[in-house]
Design goal:
Blueprint lengths: L1 H19 L1 E7 L13 E3 L5 E3 L2 E3 L5 E6 L13 E6 L14 E8 L2 E13 L4 E7 L5 E3 L4 E2 L3 E9 L2
Parallel strand pairs: 1-5
Antiparallel strand pairs: 1-2, 3-4, 5-6, 6-12, 7-8, 7-12, 8-9, 9-10, 9-11
Length: about 160
Amino acid sequence: MAAFAIIVIMLFLVFLYKKNSIQVNPVIAGPITNSHQADKKTTISPFETYYYNGKKVNPRDYTVCKVDGDCMGCRGIHASDIIFIKKFKNQEDKKIIKKGDILYIKYFKNGLEGYKLREIDEHLIEENAVKTLYYTAESDVKYSSRPHKIDNIVGIVAMKFNN
């Protein structure tokens, strides 16, 4: 009977652990290719502790992502880093975007859908779009082929943690 109670308690604890785990979404930092797996999601422990500038940060207040690619390496964001995204609640929030910010952008390309990181170069409000860039492994600047629609900008990188 005691063994059964222990098993039930363990199963309940596993259930609570899984229920409270935080989903980590993949985000592409580099050119979009078919080799990227946009559906490759993982989780982090609900007991994981993060500190930023000496203050404890609650991951549940952000969208948590794991970086796939190195196009933001010269900005200190590398493959496998965990980043916290401050999601925009409405169009008004997007007015805080400024040159140099790292944007979290939803993309649709060649039948793929996912999220990517790009640095904002120029804000083009009148066209309802932003001009963005990324970097090569040699730190050369590459401009996105066309500006990104403001509607596709979902958030901004708020914090990064080396993994």
